[in-house]
Amino acid sequence: MAEITRKWYKEMSVYQIWTRSLCDSNGDGIGDLPGVYSKLDYIQSLGVDGIWFSPIYPTPNADYGYDISDYKNINPEFGTLDDFKKILDSAHKRGMKVFMDLVVNHTSDEHEWFKESMKSKDNPYHDYYFWRDGKKKGGKKPPNNWLSIFEGKAWEYNKDLDQYYLHVFAKKQPDLNMDNPKVREEVKSIMRFWLDMGVDGFREDVITFISKKEGLPNGFPIPIACGIEHYKHGPHLEEYLDEFRQVLNEYDCFAVGEGPMTSLKDAVNFCSEGPGQKLDMLISFDHMNADCFMADWIKIPFSLRKLKKTFDRWQTQMYGKGWNSLYIENHDHARIIERYGNINYRVESAKMLATMYMLQCGTPFIYQGQEIGMTNLKFDSINEYKDVMTFNNFRLFKMLGFNEERFLKLSAKVNRENARTPVQWNSSKNAGFTTADEPWFKINPNYTEINVEAAEKDENSILNYYRKLIKFRKENEIVIYGNFKQYYKNSGKLFVYERNYKGQKLLVINSFSDKIVKFNAPDGYDMSKGELVISNYPVRGQINNCFELRPYESRVYLFK
Ligand code: GLC
Ligand code: CA
Questions:
Q1: Catalytic residue among 77, 109, 258, 553
Q2: pTM higher than 0.70 for the full model?
Q3: Which residues are within 8 A (CB) of 293 and not within 5 positions of it... i.e. 6 or more apart?
Q4: pLDDT for 413-428, tens place per residue?
Q5: CA within 20 to 30 Å of 545's CA: 264, 321, 349, 404, which one?
Q6: pLDDT the model gives residue 136
Q7: 405: left (phi over 0), alpha (psi -120 to 50) or beta
């Protein structure tokens, strides 16, 4: 079997921060960097080894930071470069790495490059973007039929230039023309700017979209993201990734790329170690589709078999070649308890889900609030929402006959904004997130019960369970480097897998059922020889090869 090379990034667990909702230090209702700084003790106490910041650059907030107007500065709402350097320095002193979000598929339309590009067709920045003449008589039709992922057509008309620019996301997110070598130089210069400052690597936003097919041909007609087949893995993607990799190689850093539709085969190709390696890990979406079809909003009943099959493929086919990233929450998805877990068993299912994903092979990411089991929030009106994607989906679902009420009901289950409500620190006003009367976004009223302070006091809290898991992973090489083998693949109730390393075995047993489920040890196991190392229920007495699992129970046994 392939011996896995040891790397620091394989041994870490990472905490993801969406700054706007973490903690507000100056009472303006918006989370900020001094707020993050004030929580470093807490973040360190989780046992994580790194922090990934969702974008903290200047931005007009069309996509809350994923529309950048200056790549070498800090969003003034969040603070200053000095505030950032203070965090970087303090994190490093604590032995934690810091990763930035690198968003280079597009900029903000308020970025200087775009403003210049709009000035004239012969402006040196014009070719930084995809400016094209319209089609048909008088150019009155966009250059092709592409539709954006966030906002209607993928083309926006500019009267002065009498041209259209491409935006596969929102109108205020024009796509960069990566085929222009000057644009690639800019990207490399941005990377160096942060790496020279001491940043330890990047999470690369929709990096697999950066190459568009020559000639921008029409796409297959679908009502959203039409044209995506021409850029989801464009002709020059691998070349450009190689080029950026050369910069990364000059530093002791790592890069995890977001690949919304990337196949496992391509992921193995991108992440395989050795010459030609493009990325250290990939953020895949496959395992986030166990209760939806293609996208979160097209909801179908949760299928454990689908989830297991996906994990199994990624675990076994990546092993010994590349490295997986592991996550079940981030700023783009609703809270996991209400997707793959059960709100009626909030604590049990949150712990089970944590066990299920964190003990697989890969680097686990934990999204702010996940570690205390934060939940979704139902809004009373569409006007309470903030995100361009929500409004676009409202428009689309209205065409399908949804009224506001029905839309809000669906949204409370699937909307990514569910993950963006402020972190609940304590039971005081506004959950201790801000001293302002009005936080920038609604706080989940369940903060009086679900909050960090309460979780700290409860030794059986989800929070303390996460700490245990993170510590266990760190102290046991089998969790980091062991291979993966699944049992009972056909079970619709249990997800059981084994990790195997240097003669040791770890058996991870997870029940996804709200009923009692019988468990039989897999062939060859003598459970009485195992040491129970993690569990989300009290377990007493002698363990036989057959026992009953309680709702959403997790047990992890180590066999030496
Ligand atoms: C990525 C980000 C998401 C953002 C989109 C456009 O998917 O994670 O939040 O809206 O890219 O930048
Ligand atoms: Ca603030």
A1: 258
A2: yes
A3: 299, 300
A4: 999 999 999 999 999 9
A5: 349
A6: 79
A7: alpha
